[in-house]
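Hi L.,

You mentioned the student needs an example of a multi-chain input paired with its predicted structure. This one should do, with 1001 residues in total across all chains.
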Amino acid sequence: MRLEQWIYTIPLRLRALLLRNRLDSELDEEIRDHLDRQIEFNLARGMDPDQARLAALRSLGNPALLRDQTRATWNWNGLEQLMHDMRIGIRTLSRTPGFTLVAILVMALGIGANVALFTVVRSVLLKPLPYSDPGRLVLIYEADYDQPHPAPWLPVDAGSFWDWQRSTQALAQMALVSPFQGYNVSGEGGKLPEVVEAAWCTDNFFSLLGVQPMMGRSFTPDDDRPGAPAVAMITASFWKRRYASDPAITGKTIWLDAKPYTIIGVLPPTFVYSGAFGGGADQIWTPVRHEAPASLLHTYGDHEFLAIARLAPGVSLTTLEARVDALQKQIKAAHPEPAVHAGAISRTMLDDAVHNYKTPLYALLGATGCVLLIACMNVAGLLVARAASRSKEFAIRAALGGGRMRLIRERLIESLLLSASGGALGLLLAWAALAWLIHARHDMNRVEAIHFDGMAAVFTLAVIFLCALFSGLISAYNSGRGNILAGLQEGSRSHSGGRSRGLLRRLLLSAEVGLTVVLLVGAGLLLKSFQHLRSSDLGVPVDNVLTLRLGLPDARYKQDEQKIAFFEQLIARVRALPGVSSTGLVSAAPGEGWNGDDLMSIVEHPPLPKGKGLDFMLRGADPGYFSAIGLPILRGRTFNEDERGKRANVVLISRGAAQQYFPGEDPIGKHLKTIDEGGVWTVIGVVGDVRWNVAQPPNPTLYWPIYGNGYSFGTIVVRAPHDVESLAVPVQKIVAQLDPDLPVSNVMTLREAIGKSTIDSEFDSVLVLAFAIIALVLAAAGLYGVLAYLVAQRLVEFGIRLALGAQRNALLSHLLLDGLKPALAGLLIGLPASAAVVRLIRSMLYETEPLDPVVFAAVAGLLLFVAIAACLAPAWYASRLDPMRTLRTE
Amino acid sequence: MSKPSDLVQGTLDLLVLKILALEPLHGWALSQRLKQVSGDVLQVSDGSLYPALHKLEQQGWIHAEWKPTENNRRAKFYSLTRLGRRYLEKEAANWERISTAISGVLRLTEV
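Structure written out for the whole complex:
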C-alpha cells in the first residue's frame, strides 16, 4: 500500500480498531435500510406485503453470511478473530481450573528453571569479561608432565616470566600477577584490624586489561621497583566498606603488615579479577617488584605467579603458546633443576575464569532442559486427554463447517495461554532462583556478572512460544486427525475407543520416563560422589575442632624469637581457657590447602639421579599439635619442648611417606636432606595420613617444629569436648590482648571448612536431584493419568467382563502391565541414554565411576516402584468395580 | 439462456467506482443504478455489493457518510475520494487497453 493511501486511511483504521461495536450497528442499519427500500420498491411495483418482504430478503441472500463477508473486509479482522479465540480459550480453561492450574505450574517450573540457568550460563560463561577487547587476553601457565604430580596449568615463576616477556614483545604484552597474597590491615582510627586478600602485579597490569582507576592513578614503572615508596590501589568495595567512600582517599596512608603504604588510586566498582586460581576477593593491589622478595623475583623454581598476556593484532593464541613453550624448554635445558617446569600452555582469560564451572553449569542447563521437555510433554499429554474428552464437540464443530485451521488455531492459542501464564510465573521463579544463587554461590567466579538482560527476555519469549507450539501441535495434530463421522459415532456408546490417542500419549510417556531416567542417574551419581566427598576421611576426627589463622607481620616481629614467644604465649593462654581440652599450632591444618612441598633425599639410601627427589608436603607443628588435632602417633614420639631454634632438626613423617619412601624398613633414626639447601633432619616418629584437600588423596607429609623453621604464620587448632564454636570469641579476645593490631582470619570449625570445600559438589548434586524429583513426579502423574483415562473409557467393558465372570486379580494385573508398558519402554530407552550421557559429567564425579551399577540399579528400581504405585490406583479401581452399577449407568 | 458470466475479478470495484464518480449514492440506490446501466447482462447480487463497498472504503477509495433522506430517515451515502478518482482513472485506462487488445484478437478473421 502506498504511503499516501496509508495516511489517508489512518482514521478509518483507528475507527475499525476502536469503534468496532459502532461499525457493527452501522452495518446492521445499512442492511436494514437496504431491505426497507427494496420492500418499498416491491410494494410500489404492486406486490402484496408478504411477497414484497420475501422477495427483498431473497435478493439480499443470507444476511448472516453477508454480515460475515462484509466484516471480513474490515481492517484488524485477524486480530479480532484472535481475541475471540483467546476469549474462548480463557473460558474453556477456566472451566477446568484444576487442569489449568497444574499445567501452568508445570510450565512455570520448567520455564523458570531454564530461564534462570540460561541467564547464569550466558552471564558467567559467555558474556565477555569487563575489560577492553577481552577476546585478546590470555593466561599462560607452565606445564610439566615429568613431575611427582604431573599437571598442566601450573603457576608461573618470575624468572621464566621475565624471559618470556623479553622474547615475545612482538607477539604480546605481558603482565605478572600473584592474586593469592594477603595483608594484615592494621586497625587505625578505631577500625578493626583485618586480614585482606590481596594481589601483587606488575605496573602494566591495569593498562594491559584496559582498566582505569575511578579515582587517583594507576601504577607506574617508578612504583614497581624495589626501594620505591610503598603504594597500593584498593577496590571500590573496600573503599566503600572501610573508608565510607571517603572522597579524599588518595594520598592517605594504609598500614599493611605494620608498614605504611600510600593509597594512590581506587579501582572502579566493575573491576574484579577472576581466574582459575581465585582472586575474586582481592581488595588491595600492590606493585610486585616492590613487594616480592628479590629471591622470588629471580628464581625459576618458585611458582607464585600467573602470567597474563594481551595478544598483538593478528597473533593467535597458538602462535604465542608455541613460542613460550619453546622458550620454556630452553629455560629447562639451561636450569635442569627438578622444580623448573619444561613447558608452557595457555588459554583465554574467560576460559580461565570459568573453566571449573563449565561442565557443571552445562550439565545443570541440560537437566533443566530435560525438565522443560518433560513439562511440555506432560502438558501435551493433558491437552490430548482433554481433546479426547472433547472429541465430540470438535466433530460437531467440524460437521457444521468449522475450518480445520481455525480449530487447530484454537488449540494452539489454548496452549499458548497456558505456557504464557506459566512463563510469567516462571519469570518470578527465575528471578527468585537467581537471587538465591547469587546469595548462595558468592564463591563462584563471575557471579557478579549475572543479570537478567534483554537476551534473557528474548530467550524467555522463545521458550514460551516453543512450548506452546510443541504441546499445542501435538494435541492439535492428534485431534485434527481422523474423520468426523467416527468422532460423532464414538461417544454415542462407550467402547474401547481412542486407541490411537492412547498410543500417542504412551509414546510421549515413554520419552518422558526415558528423560527422567537420565536425570535420575545423573542425580544419583552426583549424590553418591557428594557423599563420598563428605564422608572422605580427612585423617582426623572433625567434630568439635576450631581453627583460627593468623600471621605475624615481619615489620613488627623482626626476630624469630619474638614470633616464637608470641605463639607460645598465645597457645599457653588458649590452653588455660575453660572448656578447651587441647590446643596446638600448625602451619596448615588438614583440608586447609597445599601450603608448600619440597624435594628430599634420604641420607642412608643410595643417591638419587641428579634433579630427582622424594616429594614431601611440608608442615610446621608445635609439640601439642598432634594430640590436639587427634592425629595418632603410630611410632616414635612427638617433638620435645627444647627441639626448637637451632635444635629443630627433627621431623615426623606420615604413614604414607613411611610406606612409600621406606618400604620394609624402620624410618626412625634415618635422616632426610633437602636436595638444594642441604639441611639434615632426623626422623623421630611416624603419624597418620591427613588430606590437604578433602577431594584429594593424602600426600606423603613431613612435620618439623614450627618453632625454628622460620614460620611467621600459623593455624591455632582448638579441641573441646562440646560447643567448640563458643570458644571462637574468647580465643580472638586473647589475640587482641596480646596484640590489638593483629587480625584473625578463617575462624571456623573443621566441619565448616569441609562444608565450604564441598559446596560445589553439594550445589550440583542437590540441584540435579531436585530436577530429577520434579521429573519423576511429572512422569508418575503422566503414568497415572493415562491409565486412569483408559480405565474411565472402558468402564463398561470392564463391568461386562466382571459380570461374565472375569477374575478381578487377572484384570488388575492385566491393567497394571498395560499401564507399566510406557514406563518399561522409557526405562529401556533411558538406561542406555544415561550410559552415554554420564560420560560428559565424569569430571564432576569424585571416586564414582560414571557407569556405577548400584546407581543404575537403584534408579531402575525406584522408577519401577514409582510407576507401579502410580498405576496401582486406577487398576485397583477397575478391578473392584461393581458390575451392576457400571452397567446401569449406560 | 446461458448463465451470465461471472464478473471478471475486480470489475465490480470498477463499476462501483465509476457510478459513484457520477454522484454519491447509498447502497440500495447503487444496486438499482447498477441494474439499470448494465441491463441484465451483469447481474450483481445485492449480497456481494456490501462487502465490495466496505472493502473500497477500507482502502480509502470511497468515503462513507450518513445523510438524512426523505421521511426522516437516514442512509449511508458513498462518494469517491481523491485517491479513488485517481485509481478509477488508472483502472479505466487499463480496462480500455485490455479490452481493445482482446477485441482486436477476437476480430481476427481466419485466412
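You could point out the following to them. Chain B has four helices and three strands. Chain B touches chain A through 24 residues (CB under 8 Å).

Best wishes,
N.
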